[in-house]
Amino acid sequence: MQKKLNKHYLLLLFSCLCYTPGLLAQYPTVRERIINLPTFDQKPIHYGYYIGLNQYDFKFDYVDYYYKELRYKDVAVIPKSGFCVGLIGDLRLNTFFNLRFEPGLYYSRRELQYPDIVGFNKESDKLREVKSTYIHLPIVLKISTKRINNFRPFIMAGFSTDFNLSSNHKNRDDNASNVFRTTSQNLNYELGLGFDFYLYYFKFSPSLRGIFSFQNELIPDANPNSPWTGIIDSMFSRGIAIIITFE
């Protein structure tokens, strides 16, 4: 299931990127209007804040014998809606490029549903809830098109690190005591796109972000044959967020 979600995230981002040139091609036909905040993008540094919604899942890599010998199904991930809030620091590099630091707090929740595996004593053992409270620290490059009236599309790319306050990494208990543990820090790459709307008093910018971890986040149980972690070789977060910024 998580593989399908990841493909949908990438397909959505790619489709929107392909659609942007079509919007730019229509620029010559747009009529001139009253320009709001005409000198806003000339500021060397400016600040803002953002709020948004997110949804995370996991991508699993399994040990070799899990499929070859046992032929079990994937661990199903049920993503739940979360929220995010944070601040923005923007450094103007030139007319089209801005370097941004966007520290924030991301809260997410995921449910893991395990297939029938020898080792589960009761039905509730197949379900694990993973709550994550991330201190999210991204540095992204914002690439904007030429502004037309009060509208300006952009794309973003960058890297981020997360500090998970709900990781349970120091907890000596594990899944045998219903405690699912993850690492306290992970690294991600991010992709996104959105639109700047220049209003009378401020700039309003909705955007779609994809967040993809490339660091294994799983802490194995003490028992190497644990049915919860013994079948998993590595685990990576995948997330999508709808962000609204005010600058």
Précis, in short:
This protein is 12% helix and 49% strand. With 247 residues, the protein is mainly beta.
Structural notes for this entry:
- With 247 residues, the protein is mainly beta.
- The chain has one domain (2-28, 40-246): Beta Barrel (Porin), CATH 2.40.160.
- The chain has helices spanning 2-25, 64-68, and strands at 45-62, 76-92, 97-101, 104-113, 127-144, 151-164, 185-198, 203-213, 232-246.
- Strands 1, 2, 3, 4, 5, 6, 7, 8 and 9 form a 9-stranded antiparallel β-sheet that branches.
- Strand 2 (76-92) and strand 3 (97-101) form a beta hairpin.
- The model is unreliable at 1-6 and 19-28 (pLDDT under 50).
* Strand runs, count: 9
Low-confidence segments, given as residue ranges, are 1-6, 19-28
Query: What's the pLDDT, averaged over the residues?
Result: 87
**Helix content range:** 10-25%
- CATH top level is Mainly Beta
